[in-house]
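All the exercises in this workshop are built on plain-text protein records. A learned vocabulary of local backbone shapes supplies the integers on the structure line. Once this layout is familiar, the rest of the handout is easier to follow. An example says more than a description, so a record of this kind follows:
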Amino acid sequence: MKEKTNRDKLIIVGGGAAGLLAAKELCNDHAVTVLEARPAIGGRMLAGGAEFVHGRLPLTLDLLKVAGISYTAVAGRFFHVSDGKWQPDADMIEGWDGLLAQMASLKTDTTMTSFLDIHYPGAGYAGFRDEVKSFVAGYDLADPNTVSVQALYREWSHEDEVNFRIAGGYNALIDYLARCCYDADCEIVTGKTVYEVVWGPGEVKVVTTDGSIYEATKLIVTIPLWLLQKGAIHFSPRLPQYEAAAQQIGWGTVIKVILTFKTAFWQKQQEDIGFIFSDEVIPTWWTQAPDEQPVLSGWLGGPSAKEYAGYTDEMLLQTALACLARIFDLEISDLEEHLDNGAIFNWQNDVFTKGAYSYDLPGSAAARQLLNKPVADTLYFAGEALYDGNSPGTVEAALTTGKNVAARIGGSV
């Protein structure tokens, strides 16, 4: 191992996917300290967060292969349920291919709401407009009134039909990255919330809320976008251009519900259920297929989720059961009797993230380009919101930025 010197000392703020991979890439040659505000590392890969590998994503799958972690393809059919009627294997949205063709021809970026009003006007397209907006909110957690059409096209036109689940969940990947860091003498400190960074070229002092002080020559900041936007970390001197750039990227939220039942009662309703798309308050549900675990996960994303910020977990649990009762034409009391456990993850109320993942506004690309530039070869930023690729809002996005920033630092020290 290369001898580590003071000039190689690095601090990484945030022990999620980006921070952990950056630490793994750098800790063999540099003295690295990771400061994580949560009691445990993992960030949005922890329980109730990331669940799927959305397609054949190279960095994620390569890491799983090297780590010896297995994964399986998600299975099961799609069903649309409306007014008690089940429609199997339906297209996500009728007219989807035509929508993509219209989006591809767009010369000047605009928001999805404006795009739909121009290209799909009138009462005849009202249902179609609502479906597209619901998909934007549910899948991308984006506000149709502000999201970039060109960014959505870039993502949607590269969607892979195959998704995967990791054996042991993303916790298995967290454990692997942590082992790599510990084996290289990387210091990982949890329960440390950074609130101030005093910096100059080649020197950084990081102050946490408990009064701890850490010093280094370089700093990588990987905190969630919302915290960056709200100035959760005070930089001295300030970074006005970077602060402004952070405001030019959208931030979405989601409520995820995970219900474990005594039996997989839904198998009596339909065979091979994978995903259910409904017009309920919590519209999207999925099973663990091909695994037969009696678990249903519910998903309410985008602006609609914000309406439930003040709901308690019990209120959201009852809302979820009411949705399922209507979907499966059952009594809520029957569902309660069969329920073993209910877990609610209202990400907008998580103090460490205040949301789920980012989305592009028109103009976000330029903002991201700035945020990816180091400040005086001393301050660096990473995280899924800074990803420039076809898989935004994913663990792959975060991992990619962590790897990229590590490569920049590795070539500059």
In short: The mean pLDDT is 95. The chain is about 35% helix and 25% strand. The chain has two domains: 6-72+166-249+361-410, 251-349. The CA atoms of residues 106 and 150 lie 7 Å apart.
